[in-house]
Design brief:
- It is a single chain.
- With about 160 residues, this protein is α/β, with parallel strands linked by helices.
- It has a single domain, classed as Leucine Aminopeptidase, subunit E, domain 1 (3-Layer(aba) Sandwich), CATH 3.40.220.
- It has a six-stranded mixed β-sheet, sandwiched between helices.
- It is globular, with a radius of gyration of 14 Å.
- The model has no long low-confidence stretch (mean pLDDT about 95).
Length: about 160
Amino acid sequence: MAEIQVVRGDITDEQVDAVVTAANESLLGGGGVDGAIHRAAGPELAKAGAAQAPCPPGDAVATPSFGLGPRIRHVIHTVGPVWEGGGHGEADVLARCYRRSLEVADDLRAGSIAFPAIATGIYGFPSDEAARIAMSTIRAAHTQVQLVRLVAFDEETYRHLKAQE
C-alpha cells in the first residue's frame, strides 16, 4: 500500500516522478491546474498531449514532463467527469481517473506521484465527495507506487482531504 500524504501547495513544485493533470479530452491544456501544469511544462506538453487525444473521461495517458523536468519526469493526463448532480455515474468516472492514473504510473515505473483534486474546479464536482473518492480509491488500489501526494491548491480542498486521512 502506498503512503498517502495530503499537502497544500502548487503541484508544479512537487518533487515526484509523475504529476497528474486534470485535463480536458483534447489534452491541449485548459484552466486551473491543467493550465498551470501546461504553463510550467511549456508548449511541447500540448503537442505531446494532442498526439494522444482524445482521452475519454475516466482514462489517463502519459507524456514526458518537458519543462517540469528533471524533478518531474512524466505528466499523466486524466479527464474527470463533469458534475451533473451525482446521478450520472460521476463518482465511478472519478474513481476510474485515480485508478487509471496509478496504472499508468505503474507502467512508467514511477515510485511517486502527485494528484490534484480532479474535477473539482470548472467541472464542478463537490470537493468533499471528491476527497472521499480520491482517498478510498487510492487506498484500495493495487499499485507499485510507493508515495502518493494529494496536492490541494486551496484551503477548502485541503480541509476535505485532511478529513479523509
